[in-house]
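Let's study my pick:
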Amino acid sequence: SDTPLRIARVESGKTLETVARSVGVSKGYLSRVECGLQRPSPTLTEKLSRFFGTVSEIEILYPERFTK
């Protein structure tokens, strides 16, 4: 199931590695956040939301509410 964060990343054409480097986390950690296995910190949530500009902090924090 695709979370809003994963959809935003795929639609932007960016790799996990590129996004992880840009927001200062490991690729593995970002993958777990993207899959909804781990909740990101408020700081990371804000960074990701600003990085993409198309996904809200609420969608990143609570992907289960928005997952298709």
User: Anything to note?
Assistant: The first helix runs from residue 4 to 12. Helices lie at 4-12, 16-23, 27-34, 42-52, 57-61. The mean pLDDT is 94. The radius of gyration is 10 Å.
